[in-house]
Amino acid sequence: METRYTHSPEDIRHYSTEQLRKEFLVEKNFVPGEVILTYTHNDRMIFGGVTPTDKPLTIELSTELGVSYFLERRELGVINIGGSGSIIIEGTEDSMKKQDGYYIGKETGEIQFKSDDPANPAKFYVVSVPAHHKYPNVKISIDKIEPKVTGESSTLNHRSIYQYIHPNVCESCQLQMGYTILSPGSAWNTMPCHTHERRMETYLYFDMKEDTRVFHFMGRPDETKHLVVANEQACISPSWSIHSGVGSSDYTFIWAMCGENITYEDMDNVRMQDLK
């Protein structure tokens, strides 16, 4: 597990492209047969990929977190973006096809991740944040989610938002997690953009072609920066930063948030004329 530390807006003012990418872009999240995680000190979120092949994988973090097992004081969200597989939670197995999700509450013990076909492994994107209460574990099937359709084709941001870990779907302490798919011909995932000082966020971009790139915009609204992002790479977005992207072709992304509240619409909108 790699650790990333926090930064103020003043810190990044003079960052080179290389420095900005080193601090805010996670280039490798899915490696066959491995667990790849990043710990950001922004609200102490842990995120990354679990890619089982010929044998199940588990997340074994205890010493690093000062606890006796991974979810002793944390909750976990999971979305599978790869081949079909399953999750075994304390001995009970649930199938997980592509786009299925899971909320796993605080104090849950052993969790194993499996793939049905090692040649086409499941890719479990996982996000974990500190939790103060134990809520029930819930499987979240993509077939049962009614997407929220928003944006317009005229502004190139028509998209469907699938809310997985959200008050409309299941209870959580502070984790929110979802999946956004852009409509054909749309390129912006969010524009006009916004910030939310009360919550940080991570973005995982995927389902992209090899030569496709997303320009992920970050920074203060009046002093923007950008990261050029390839398939299955993730961005860390501090609470003070905008988080908006535009792609050279179609793409999908998973957003995950944690912080002071779980009110999805709690955001500070930025006027187009204020962007610089």
Automatic annotation (TrEMBL):
Keyword tags: Isomerase, Metal-binding, Zinc
Q: Name one Pfam family in it.
A: KduI
User: Any binding details for the cofactor?
Assistant: Binds 1 zinc ion per subunit.
Q: Which gene encodes it?
A: kduI_2
Q: Does the keyword Iron apply?
A: no
Q: Which PANTHER family match?
A: 4-DEOXY-L-THREO-5-HEXOSULOSE-URONATE KETOL-ISOMERASE
| Uppermost EC category | isomerase
The protein's matches in InterPro entries, at most eight in alphabetical order, are given as:
KduI (IPR007045), KduI/IolB_isomerase (IPR021120), KduI_N (IPR027449), RmlC-like_jellyroll (IPR014710), RmlC_Cupin_sf (IPR011051)
Its UniProt entry gives the catalysed reaction(s) as: 5-dehydro-4-deoxy-D-glucuronate = 3-deoxy-D-glycero-2,5-hexodiulosonate
Report whether Coiled coil shows up as a keyword of the record.
no
Which pathway does the UniProt entry assign to this protein? Glycan metabolism; pectin degradation; 2-dehydro-3-deoxy-D-gluconate from pectin: step 4/5
Descriptive protein name: 4-deoxy-L-threo-5-hexosulose-uronate ketol-isomerase
